[in-house]
TrEMBL record:
A Pfam family recorded for this sequence: DUF3293
Species this protein is from: Dyella japonica
Name of this chain's protein: DUF3293 domain-containing protein
InterPro entries found in the cross-reference section: DUF3293
Length: 139
């Protein structure tokens, strides 16, 4: 991954929709927002999408189909405790990608899903700890 794309991932706002409205914003290398602590508890979590594989624009219909498939996979995982809708928003507000914040699956579980959906990376953490950018390991 080139430096510009890596910088874009780090500058992205990873927004999680709250049950009562509004958003909690996750930032790489910052602690999990307080509003998400009750759901995360001490569990692992991830912020992941199926949109725009390999960070290349894809048709809206293709992205939606992939996103629905990702949601089905996340729901089927026995360790999934919660899934909240989210959106990744570029630091300059130039693009948005619908996403999911999922509580329960570890990076070892999310890595294959990220690879399956062509994602170069995703954000993850454990409990209230700082969010980490995880580059998807090659197979």
């Amino acid at each position: 991954m080139d430096e510009a794309l890596l910088a874009a991932y780090r500058a992205t706002e990873y927004r999680v929709r709250l049950a009562r409205g509004g958003w909690a914003v996750i930032h790489v290398d910052q602690p999990l927002p307080v509003e998400l602590h009750p759901l995360a508890q001490t569990l692992p979590w991830g912020f992941i999408t199926a949109w725009n594989p390999r960070s290349e624009l894809a048709p809206r219909a293709t992205n939606r189909q992939a996103q629905h498939a990702l949601l089905a996979h996340l729901r089927a995982l026995p360790e999934t405790m919660a899934i909240r809708p989210g959106v990744g928003v570029s630091g300059d507000g130039g693009w948005k990608e619908p996403s999911f914040w999922v509580v329960g699956p570890t990076a070892a579980t999310l890595d294959p899903l990220a690879r399956r959906f062509g994602q170069l990376g995703y954000v993850h953490g454990e409990g209230a700890s700082p969010a980490q950018l995880r580059l998807t390991p090659a197979t």
